[in-house]
Amino acid sequence: MTFSKLPTVDILIFLIGNLVNILISAIMISRTSSWKKFEFYSGLIIVTMAIPLAACVYLNFIENRGVWTVILPLFLIVYCLIELIFDYIFKSNFRETNLLWPYLLVFYLALMGMIGYAFLLGKPFGFITLSTYFLSLFATRYSYTRVGH
Fold first, then answer.
1. What is the pLDDT of residues 121-146, one digit of tens each?
2. How far is CA 47 from its chain centroid?
3. What pLDDT is stored for residue 1 in this prediction?
4. Contact 16, 52 (CB under 8 A)
5. 8 A C-beta contact, residue 128 and residue 34
6. CB neighbours of 63 closer than 8 A, spacing ≥ 6?
7. Nearest Cα to Cα of residue 23 among 108, 147, 135
8. CA atoms within 13 A on the CB side of 98
9. I want to staple 110 with a disulfide (CB 3.0 to 4.6 A). Which of 50, 76, 130, 137 is the partner?
10. Geometric angle at alpha carbon 119, from 115 and 123, rounded to 5°
């Protein structure tokens, strides 16, 4: 299927998934330069993606578009809510606690959910999203080797 023939909901979810991957890449790279404000606002953009994503999930649900079109984006919504609560409301340093592993599980489920959704739209969309995901992994590795997080 071509991009122009996709329903608007699918286009929006595809774009959100890739925007999140690109922003995560930018956040990881910015950590090596201590650009705290950039990291803060980029993270806030990611968190706000839960709003249009929730609207898309609702539309997929009421249009009976299939269980995976509802479940896969839900992981990213849950991740965004966790980020909102721990990073922006409580301003908790939870990444240095026992909550790190459950957090990482939700984080990677969210990213995998977006990859899965993109592949539902077609191979080109899936491979584009997979590519931006790998970009975020490389940026994470780069950040980890430079500053340890």
1. 999 999 999 999 999 999 999 999 99
2. 9
3. 64
4. yes
5. no
6. none
7. 135
8. 0
9. 76
10. 125
Which conformational region is residue 114 in: left (phi greater than 0), alpha (psi within -120 to 50 degrees), or beta? Answer: alpha
**Cα atoms in the 13 Å half-sphere on the side-chain side of 104:** 10
Cβ(38)–Cβ(149) under 8 Å? no
Calpha distance 6→77 (Å, rounded): 22
CB atoms within 10 A of CB 1: 12
- Non-local (6+) Cβ contacts of 114 within 8 A are 13, 16, 17, 18, 20, 21, 72, 73, 76, 129, 133
| Chain centre to alpha carbon of residue 126 | 14
Using one digit for the tens of pLDDT, what is the confidence trace for 60-108? 999 999 999 999 999 999 999 999 999 999 998 888 889 999 999 999 9
d(CA 110, CA 54): 13
Specify the 3-state DSSP secondary structure of 98.
Answer: coil
- Average pLDDT of the chain to the nearest whole number: 95
Spatial CB neighbours of 52, under 8 Å, sequence gap ≥ 6: 12, 16
